[in-house]
Write a structure and sequence with these properties.
single chain, about 140 residues, mainly alpha, two-stranded antiparallel ribbon, 5 helices
């Protein structure tokens, strides 16, 4: 089995190439954009699958210099939060209203044969009671 040994610079260059491949893939696959999957994850997954196949078939294996591993992991996990939108954070969650797309807002309880009464919230402003938080609203 052929073993390719990469030094620190070659390892960093390979990581950058995989990042660019991941970025290209994320920009062309709507599922990855919709699920907010970062480009380094996609690039790393592609490399992991290729390396698995070449290693299991006995074609080749890689060994890496792990000097910059900790620094790059810190950079990655720090930057994951940068994908959050300020607009989304400002919008927040408003208890008592349905926030899913197509939500109906406050619920009206209608008795058959009678005109609709006043608008009643399903739960108090603090949200659903603790024992019901695991279950979806039937509405």
């Amino acid at each position: 089995m052929l073993t390719i040994q990469l030094d620190m610079l070659q390892t960093a260059a390979l990581a950058m190439i995989l990042f660019l491949i991941g970025r290209f893939t994320v920009s062309h696959v709507a599922f990855f954009q919709r699920c907010c999957i970062p480009a380094p994850v996609i690039g790393g997954l592609i490399f992991a699958i290729l390396h698995l196949v070449t290693y299991q078939t006995g074609i080749l294996t890689f060994t890496f210099d792990e000097t910059l591993k900790t620094a790059f992991m810190d950079f990655f996990f720090t930057s994951v939060g940068f994908g959050a939108s300020i607009k989304l954070l400002k919008k927040g969650y408003h208890p008592g209203h349905h926030s899913e797309p197509g939500g109906r807002g406050p619920v009206r309880f209608v008795r058959p044969g009678r005109p609709p009464g006043p608008v009643h919230e399903l739960h108090p402003p603090g949200g659903r009671p603790r024992h019901l938080r695991l279950f979806r609203s039937p509405v």
